[in-house]
Amino acid sequence: MQWFVMEVCPRSHPLMLVPPMTGFADLREFGAPKAIGYSLIDSRNGDEKLIFPREPFSTAGKATLEKLLVNPKWGLELNNEIVQNSIAFFNATDSRLKHADLATKTDVELGNIYEELADYQRRSHLPGLVLVVMEFDHQLLTHYLMDHLQSVIRAKNLPFRASEAFSILTTPLEDSYAQKEEMSLLKIATGVKDARVRKLFEIQDLEMLSTRLQKMDPALSQELDAHVESYCWLPYMYEGPAWDRRYFLQVLQGLLKADVDALLQSAQSRHARTQEQQKQLLSRLQLDEKHTQLLLVAQGMVFTKGFRKDALYPFFWRLEPFLKEVAKRLGLSLKQVRRLMPSEIPAALRKQAVVDADELNARFEHYVQYIHEGTREFFSGSEADTFMERIELETHDASTEVRELSGECACPGVVRGIARLIESPSDMAKMQTGDILIAHATNPDIVPAMKMAGAIVTDMGGITCHAAIVSRELKIPCVIGTKVATAVLKDGDAVEVDANHGKVTKIG
Q1: DSSP reduced 3-state for 505
Q2: Rounded distance, CA 129 to CA 142, Å?
Q3: Going by C-beta distance under 8 Å and a sequence separation of 6 or more, which residues neighbour residue 238?
Q4: Are 217 and 270 in contact (CB under 8 A)?
Q5: Which residues, 6+ apart, have CB-to-CB distance to 87 below 8 Å?
Q6: DSSP element (H, E) containing 474
Q7: How far apart are alpha carbons 212 and 194 in whole angstroms?
Q8: What kind and span of H or E run contains 271?
Q9: How far is CA 374 from CA 24, 26, 35, 370, 377, in A?
């Protein structure tokens, strides 16, 4: 079989990816009409590739689309289930870990806590993968809806593009946690009225600023601490780090130099503006009930992809002290504990399994989990190397002579700029405002660079990928799913991004 890389998760570990990838092979318990039958994790030095066989994945995606086209309400109900399960996961994480005195728990109690939360993790994440199968292969639902919108626009001779309509109509009307954080910090900034306190924020030494703020305005300092507690986990992903008080002080410094009242008003009205745009578009398009519901399903997919990730990040942030306690009891490092399989943590704590530190170290270097027709195989070290030699991965033409790339429009617009390859936070220093951010796939820890970008281009993606979600929030032109942008383009290339038509062109 020929396999393809669906996604790459940087700085991840088995506690994150083994549960969803084990379930991904057969999602029928969550309503999927057909099982893929196979899934593969190829993890090297903490970066994990999610790999699937092309034909079974495509077949499952087509079956899912067919089921959705027959019954769009199924998709609406599934999105609602994901939200409810994710809310339950949020609450369970706080309930079990926020104030837990882990040192007083017995080994068995710790094992029980992890098993319970791992079940919440599974039920929050797996239902969301059912609809994702349609999008991460050939963007089946996106193409179906774009084609339908295009035909309606042409028939009615309407003065806008299908890509513009699709982007607006699939934009969620609920705040993501990133948007909630922005709103919260803007409200804090608008409350800083005292001229002496505002002057305090001119201090560049953040430690000194923090200390003096506590003394001069204890109420504001406490409000900031509450904000840190509520939102510091946003960039944590699976291994951290989280944002700290210094980070938010630095952001506040920037906000207090701007017109924060205008920024807050704009943030507060963004959903009302989008809702009005959607209302006007739907009035002009006059879509039938089926296609209106399908667009709502797509809109829900965009929201739930972000929402279930938002449930994962605080879980892994709050799990870090738990894992450190487990590491201490098992005589391991935190890095080694993160290489345990989810089932091995409670088993080791209950003395039902012996932990081999050398095996965990080998897993960090390279491990493979292979699921096929209900059977799980696991390989580490040289055995993982040997196994992957048998896997035939798709390749794409990445010739530097290629002048034009094609992908999918995630957010419309046309921009010219200088390409910058940004794959990790260490790359962000080269990013200048207006540059074109090029990435294999984006993730939360490079959001500061995304905010500077004139446009975003990725190798991978669908309407629910991180780049698509964030570009819509920021209203930045974005082309996803080019396959080879990071291989064809290099730092300093002058490019034009025509997201309206999903094109990226070298210029000059």
Answers
A1: strand
A2: 16
A3: 9, 11, 12, 13, 15, 16, 312, 313, 316
A4: no
A5: 311
A6: helix 466-474
A7: 14
A8: helix 260-285
A9: 11, 8, 10, 10, 10
pLDDT tens digits, one per residue of 72-88 = 999 999 999 999 999 99
Rg, C-alpha atoms of the chain = 24
| Whether the Cβ atoms of residue 494 and residue 438 lie closer than 8 Å to each other | no
72 cis-preceded (ω within 30 degrees of 0): no
Return d(Cα 39, Cα 43) in angstroms, integer. Answer: 13
Type of residue found at 182: E
248's tokens: 């938010």
Give the architecture (CATH level 2) of 404-506.
3-Layer(bba) Sandwich (3.50)
Domain with CATH 3.50.30.10 in the chain: 404-506
Q: Residue holding tokens 């990928």?
A: 465
**Whether pTM exceeds 0.90:** yes
CA-based nearest residue to 482, from 508, 461, 501: 461
Are residues 502 and 407 in contact, defined by beta-carbon separation less than 8 angstroms? yes
Give the tokens for residue 3.
Answer: 């396999």
Among residues 259, 263, 268, 255, which one has the least CA distance to residue 189? 255
User: Could you read off the pLDDT of 102-122 as tens digits, one per residue?
Assistant: 999 999 999 999 999 999 999
- Torsion angle of C-alpha atoms 348, 352, 354, 360, degrees rounded to 10: -40
pLDDT at 398: 61
**DSSP string across 272-336:** HHHHHHHHHHHHHH---HHHHHHHHHHHHHHHHHHHHHHHHHHHHHHHHHHHHHHHHHHT--HHH
Other beta carbons within 10 Å of 341? 18
Q: Which long-range contacts (CB under 8 A, 24 or more apart) does 144-148 make?
A: 144/65, 144/69, 144/294, 145/291, 145/294, 145/295, 145/298, 148/291
User: What residues contact 394, with CB distance under 8 A and at least 6 apart?
Assistant: 2, 3, 4, 5, 54
Tell me: the pLDDT tens digits for 332-376? 999 999 999 999 999 999 999 899 999 999 999 999 999 998 899
Partners of 4 in the β-ladder: 52
**pLDDT band at 400; cut points 50, 70, 90:** low
Of the candidates 463, 470, 400, 404, which has an alpha carbon nearest to the alpha carbon of residue 437? 470
364 three-class SS: helix
Structure tokens at 380: 């580490």
